[in-house]
Specification:
The protein is an all-alpha fold and 151 residues long. It has helices spanning 3-6, 24-37, 40-45, 57-68, 76-79, 88-96, 117-120, 123-134. Helix content is 43%, strand content 0%. 19% of the residues are buried. The protein binds iron/sulfur cluster (SF4) (2 copies).
């Protein structure tokens, strides 16, 4: 797989993403199956001081479900978006015939990146600036850390 195929339209390098080919997806599915096989929900729903920690069991299952649906076997460009769902940035690039946002002159004022800001900060736009300068085949070693807690 070449550099472009692993580079999302938004300048994210998919192999660095927490969802990319992760293991927790499979573990979450196995754990949920095991809990269902043992009818753990019936055990958890009975209110008693013995096992009172299970009062949030249903919320826990919601998180387990989210984990089982947070897998990307393939990178964005090859797999059709984040976990197979195109985002507004991807749709925008495709509609304009762009290889990625590095082909666009409106990057600096684009607000479609706001959704990435809380976890990734300025990383996607900074990566695009790097791609604009060095080209999509020569930027990977220059990429920023993916998450704000890694920066
Ligand atoms: S497609 Fe999106 S969610 Fe999936 S690995 Fe790439 S950046 Fe992460
Ligand atoms: S307007 Fe430009 S920078 Fe913003 S998503 Fe579309 S192509 Fe990317």
């Amino acid at each position: 797989m070449n550099s472009l195929s692993k580079t999302a339209y938004c300048g994210i390098y998919c192999p660095d993403c927490i969802r990319y080919q992760n293991k927790y997806d499979e573990y979450a599915r196995k754990l949920k199956n095991e809990l269902e096989n043992t009818e753990f929900s019936k055990y958890a729903e009975i209110k008693t001081p013995f096992g009172a920690n299970f009062v949030k069991y249903n919320e826990f299952i919601e998180v387990l479900d989210a984990l089982t649906n947070a897998q990307c076997e393939k990178p964005c460009r090859v797999g059709g978006g984040c976990s197979g769902t195109p985002c507004k940035i991807m749709e925008c690039c495709i509609s304009k015939g762009f290889e990625g946002c590095w082909d666009c002159t409106e990057l600096e004022k684009c607000e479609k990146f706001d959704i990435l800001q809380p976890r990734c900060g300025e990383m996607p736009k900074n990566n695009i600036r790097t791609i604009k300068k060095h080209g999509v085949q020569h930027w990977i070693d220059l990429r920023e850390k993916f998450y704000i807690w890694q920066q």
